[in-house]
Amino acid sequence: MDIKMGEKQSSSEEVSQPEWIKIGLTNIGPLKAADIELRRLVVFYGPNDSGKSTVLRALNMAVRIIAGLSVTSAETFALISNEADAGRISLDGFSGSYEIELIRKARNTVAVKITDKTHGGAKTVSYEAATSSLIIPSRGRLGRPPVNVLISVGLSDLNITDVSGEVMRIKTVSLNDLMTPPKDSTSINEYIEYIKEVNEVMSEIADAEIAVVDRKLYWKSANMYFDRTNTSSSVQRMSLIAAAYTLANKMKKRGALPLLYIENFDAAFHINLAKAVLNFLSGTKFPIVVEIHNDLIFRAAVLKQFNYYIFDNGAATKNLDMFEKLWREVQTMADLT
User: Fold this and answer.
1) Is 102 in contact with 27 (CB distance < 8 Å)?
2) What's the per-residue H, E or C state across the chain?
3) pLDDT tens, position by position, 95-134
4) N or C, which end of the chain is more exposed by having fewer CB within 10 Å?
C-alpha cells in the first residue's frame, strides 16, 4: 500500500476561518483544571485515566443539556471529581456561551445549574434529581450548543450524538452499516455520492479504496480487491476514520456543528500511516480531536506543529518542558529534518 505523506492542499474554501470551541473543566473526573481550545486538528496526549476521554464525556453531556435533552443524574454525578463537592463545565463557541455546574447534594442527589452567557446576560436554570432518575431541563432547549453533532470513532464503530434537530439521536454504527446500500431507492444517489467522497478521502491518504459488492465490503489496493479477512486492521481503521470524516463534513455542509473525536488513534496504525492520516485531518475546518498514547506519533505531531494538549497530574497543558526527555528528543529530530 502506497502511503501519501505530502501535505493536504487546502482549497480557497478551506482556508477560511475554522470553527472553534473552548471547553473549561474544573474538578471533572481526573481533571482539576483544564482550559482547552478545539480548532481544526487537536492532539490529546497522555496515559490512560489522565482525562482525555473525560473531555469527550463532559462535552457529550453538556451539549445534550444545552439542547434541552435528558441526561441521567448518575452520569452527572460520576463526572464530579471524587474529592470535590462540585464540578464545572464551561462551553464557548460561535453559537453560544454556557456554564454548567454540577453540585453534590445529600442522599446522592445532584444539583445542576446552567448559566447562558451567550448574549452577555446570565440566565440561570437550576434543578435537582435523584441519582437513579433522568434530569430533564424544565425550560427545554436553552440555545444552540457550540457542538450539536458529536462523532466518536472507536476501534471498529462510530458513536454518534446528534442534537442538531428537535429530537436527539444517539446511535452506534459500524463501517459496514455506513457502507451498506440503502433499501430505499430514493436514497441511492446520496449513497453513491457518500461512497465516492469516502474514497476521495482514502485516496488522499494512501492507495486504498472501498468497494461494496452484493452488500459485502471489499478494499481495493494496487488494482486488487481484498475482503475483510485479508485486509489489514490499519486499512480498515483508516476506512472508518475516512467514513466518519465524510459524514461530519456532509453534516457541516447542511448547517450542523460537528466535532470528530478519534479514540485510541494509534491502536492500529504504524508511524507512517498515522502521519499520513494526521496530515489529511489537519486541513479540516471543523474541530477534530485525536487521542494519542504513542510517543513516536506524538513527537511527529509536535514536529508538524499541530495543536496539542498533554494530560498529566490533573491538568491539560502545552508545556513540553515538564517532559524534558521528550523535549530533547523532539529538538534532536527537528535538527535532523
Assistant:
1) no
2) CCECCCCCCCCCCCCCCCCEEEEEEEEECCEEEEEEEEECEEEEECCCCCCHHHHHHHHHHHHHHHCCCCEEHHHHHHHECCCCCEEEEEEEECCEEEEEEEEECHHHEEEEEEEECCCCCCEEEEEEEECCCEECCCCCCCCCCCCCEEEEECCCEEEEEECCCCCCEEEEEEHHHHHCCCCCHHHHHHHHHHHHHHHHHHHHHECCEEEEECCEEEEEECCEEECHHHCCHHHHHHHHHHHHHHHHHHHHHCCCCEEEEECCHHHCCCHHHHHHHHHHHCCCCCCEEEEECCHHHHHHHHHCCCEEEEEECCEEECCHHHCHHHHHHHHHHHHHC
3) 889 999 999 887 778 888 888 888 776 667 666 666 567 7
4) C
Cell for 138?
424544565
Q: Which of 307, 178, 167, 166 is nearest to 248 (CA)?
A: 178
Show the cell assigned to 245: 470524516
pLDDT in tens, 145-167: 889 999 999 999 999 999 988 77
Residue 253 CB burial class (10 angstroms; 0-12, 13-18, ≥19): exposed
Instruction: Tell me which residue has cell 490499519.
Output: 234
